[in-house]
Amino acid sequence: MLGMQRIFGSALLTAALVCATPLPVAPAAPNVAAAQANWGSCLPIVDGAEQAPGAQCAMLTVPIDYDAPGAGVARIAVVRVPATGQRLGALLVNPGGPGASAVDTVVAMGSALAGSPINTHFDLVGFDPRGVGYSQPLLRCLTDAEFDAWRREPMADYSPAGVARIEALNKQYADRCAAKTGTAVLAHVGTREAARDMDEVRKMLGDEQINYLGFSYGTRIGTEYVNRFGPRVRAMVLDGAIDPSAGPLDAILHQMAGFQSAFDDFAADCARSADCPLGTDPSQANARYRQLVDPLVTRPARTADPRGLSYADAITGTFNALYSPQLWRYLTRGLTGLARGTDPGDLLTLADEYQGRDRSGHYTNAQDAFNAIRCVDAPWPTDPAVWAGLDAEVREAAPFAAYGSHTGRAPRDICSFWPVPPTSSPAPATAAEPGQVVVVSTTGDPATPYQAGVSLARQLGGSLVTFQGTQHTAVFNGNECLDTTVLAFLIDGKTPPSGLRCG
């Protein structure tokens, strides 16, 4: 999973406005019909809506297939937190995933950024892409019980029989998606549709132009939108960028190398303590990690939770913690539990958070949406030899995550068995208007590596801001240099100086 923005808010944003002369108010579109907007309270609909008392919610009806409007409709959940001062327009936000709820994100932002320049000058707006979050129909592939069972599978045996079993499970997953959601819906849930839906949201808001802040996969939506609807963008910030020209296997390889780099940073930080479960020699951290987690393939560890810690959950929990140093202490505690034979439950909690499972055992549909969207956003190879070759490269790029040794074979991904064809293919972005886009890329971003942002900024002809750190995305996380720069761009249209580095 590409991951998503987790934290909003900083002292900077709650301070006085840093930019003296805002740009003129964005004019309303004279021929836009906003009649579909039946705004009401979010309280009956959105969990935690009380955090942002001013939040308003609505459902927007769009065609499932824009080329065949009579083939059915989807209903897009939209939330807005109105500007409290001189309104410059709407700031649409997408937190990534794919599969994360922008509605939930904007509700949280509305609370965290109350009184800030952002909330003063912009309506904060989020819409859940079709199939995601509160939108309908909802993408579903597995029941809660089926998802729990899926997570108990180690999927680590790359013998001929093991690969056959993993591929059978992957095909079963794809078949269940088709059965539960329907191929007519699955064929129209990609980024291509999300960009068109976003323009319908713009019309609903009654604005000629939008502002946009996209994190992680949200940068893919933003890139698609500015390439398709360029004149309708006032200002766009893309943080944690995806390179649209990269194929899916290249993206996997680069991402795994990014997670290895983040793991190395974690191991070096951990090694400063004599109690580090990976030891005090960072050069041995990969081997020590494997010693701790490999036994879980055949025997899960006992936890206070009766499910125990499976091998798959230990790996997932580790990846989740590597998104941000703020989560490293939980990874340390979980690995310490494995090392000492005590409860490694922190790793299970990390895995639950990543997979969208709450304490009652219910899952969001984030993972099902993640798979459904990525599988139609690019062609995926079906040749087993291609996957075997990728496995060899990934093991070299990310040895901390490599179980056993390369066997010359590897299972094909779920997307290799997907029941509908892709609707997009990798292609470079076309240049946006000068001063229209700012790309923020983090040097140690594990999920969307730094060079992807460099590449996207070059393709779009946008400004590149480099953030120095080990985390996934950085805007509005409290760095004064970065947040001041983004505020100046969004409010005043001031482009960052060339070569700016923050962090």
Helix coverage percent: 25-40%
Question: What letter string, H or E per element, gives the SSE order?
Answer: EHEEEEEHHEHHHHEHEHHHHHHHEHEHE
| Count of discrete domains | 2
Q: State the end-to-end CA separation.
A: 25 Å
Tally of contiguous helical segments = 17
Outline the low-pLDDT stretches: 3-35
Q: From the alpha-carbon coordinates, what is the Rg to the nearest angstrom?
A: 22 Å
Structural class: alpha/beta
Tertiary shape? globular
Number of strands: 12
Oligomeric state of the chains present here: single chain
- Beta-strand proportion: 5-15%
What composes the largest sheet?
10 strands, mixed
Order of the strands making up the biggest sheet? 2-3-4-7-5-8-9-10-11-12
Overall pLDDT score: 92
Structure description:
- Pfam families: Abhydrolase_1.
- This is Alpha/beta hydrolase.
- Residues 1-28 form the signal peptide.
- The strands form 2 sheets. This protein has a 10-stranded mixed beta sheet with strand order 2-3-4-7-5-8-9-10-11-12, sandwiched between helices. The chain has a two-stranded antiparallel sheet with strand order 1-6.
- The chain is globular and about 60 Å long.
- Helix 17 links the parallel strand 11 and strand 12.
- Helix 11 (311-321) packs across helix 13.
- Helix content is 39%, strand content 12%.
- Mean pLDDT is 92; it is low at 3-35.
- It has helices spanning 11-14, 102-112, 117-121, 144-152, 160-181, 183-186, 191-205, 217-228, 248-270, 285-293, 311-321, 328-340, 345-355, 366-376, 384-397, 450-460, 480-492, and strands spanning 3-4, 40-41, 56-63, 73-81, 89-94, 96-97, 122-127, 210-215, 233-239, 437-442, 463-467, 501-502.
- The protein folds into 2 domains: 3-17 and 43-128 and 211-242 and 427-502, Rossmann fold, CATH 3.40.50; 140-188 and 246-420, no CATH class.
- With 503 residues, the protein is α/β, with parallel strands linked by helices.
